[in-house]
Design goal:
single chain, Serine Threonine Protein Phosphatase 5, Tetratricopeptide repeat, 14 helices, elongated, disordered N terminus, TPR_rpt, Aryl-hydrocarbon-interacting protein-like 1, PPIase_AIP, cytoplasm
């Protein structure tokens, strides 16, 4: 059965979309833009203050190619500009097309869409935006009162053009089964199902010595667990179960970080494991190695000794580590003395 809401949107926008100017037709058939499909596209927005789209009068507002940051949207996930989503659903891969709209049709949407895109493209410039009411508002009137934080967008609102001309180019279409789905797009069941999948993929990548890729999988699984924990009351059984499920992921991640020489990250993540399980031998051993690598000698020695106490079968190996640690300290002391001697004499 057709969704009446979708039908209304199509009836509203299709006459406008049929007016688009196709500059490059693209390849193949129009893809199946089912809900959850990820579309990556470049866009350009120009403003015109004249009665027609005279190229000489056009003022560029945004150009994702200049920013080297294409925009992404997930079909059916309430994109800020519904017309763009409907327009994209009519486009082929590689298609480049243009559409001009009267300012009144996009004045309540485009300035805030542009602001969100700019925050995505250059996030370091907008650390204050989470407290900015203009970011939360969907009303141009509110944006007019508070400002967008961008001079040119504020000028666009306060001195509106006749029309905006949009140019969109589809560069990638990924169906829902192929998308590395963003966590915020997952429902609770999908989150729960993805954790063991990500852990297994991480283990396979680790076995193939692809430590950076394995780290990504473990980090994403941990982020999902963190998100699930926010839905539970701290201390409740489900919350505790999610918290304990983090241990093998943190442990595996710390091992990747040792191979990648990210020693301080390894220390931080093994700390997290040991806060939950103070007798975790793997975490103690990995933290000892990380401390040793960054010359936290006493912390390394303490962790090595604790491993030896917890598992006596590991004592010969730990003894070798401690001997090597002492040798490293002696070599470092001698090097420092030679360096100091050179400066004094």
């Amino acid at each position: 059965m057709d969704d009446p809401m979708n039908s209304n949107i199509e009836d509203l926008f299709n006459p406008l979309i049929r007016r688009r100017k196709v500059l490059i037709p693209g390849k193949g058939d129009v893809p199946d833009y089912s809900n959850g499909t990820k579309v990556t596209f470049h866009f350009k927005t120009e403003a015109s203050y004249s009665d027609d789209d005279n190229e000489l009068d056009m003022i560029v507002i945004d150009d994702s190619k200049s920013s080297n940051k294409p925009m992404e949207l997930f079909i059916g996930k309430q994109f800020k500009f519904p017309l763009w989503e409907e327009w994209i659903k009519h486009m082929r891969l590689g298609e480049l097309s243009q559409l001009s709209l009267d300012w009144l049709l996009c004045q309540d949407v485009y300035p805030l869409l542009s602001k969100s895109y700019r925050n995505f493209a250059t996030p370091h410039d907008h650390n204050h935006d989470h407290d900015d009411p203009a970011r939360r508002s969907h009303c141009c009137g509110m944006a007019k009162q508070t400002g967008t934080g961008h001079k040119d967008l504020d000028e666009l609102i306060n001195k509106p053009p006749k029309r905006l001309r949009f140019t969109i180019e589809i560069i990638r279409v990924e169906n829902p089964n192929d998308v590395d789905k963003e966590i915020w797009l997952m429902n609770e069941k999908e989150m729960q199902e993805n954790i063991p999948i990500l852990q297994c993929e991480g283990n396979e990548l680790f076995a193939a010595k692809k430590f950076e890729d394995a780290s990504y999988k473990y980090r994403k699984a941990l982020a999902i667990l963190e998100q699930l924990m926010t839905r539970e009351k701290p201390g409740d059984q489900d919350w505790l179960n999610y918290d304990l499920a983090k241990i093998p992921l943190l442990s595996n991640l710390s091992q990747c970080e040792l191979y990648l020489q990210q020693y301080y990250n390894a220390i931080r993540h093994t700390d997290e494991v040991l806060e939950k399980d103070s007798k975790n031998i793997k975490a103690l051993y990995r933290r000892a190695k990380a401390h040793s690598a960054v010359w936290n000698v006493e912390q390394a020695r303490k962790d090595f000794q604790r491993v030896s106490e917890l598992d006596q079968t590991l004592q010969p190996m730990i003894k070798q580590h401690l001997i090597e640690l002492d040798h490293q300290v002696k070599r470092k002391t001698q090097e420092d003395m030679q360096l100091l001697k050179g400066k004094l004499f």
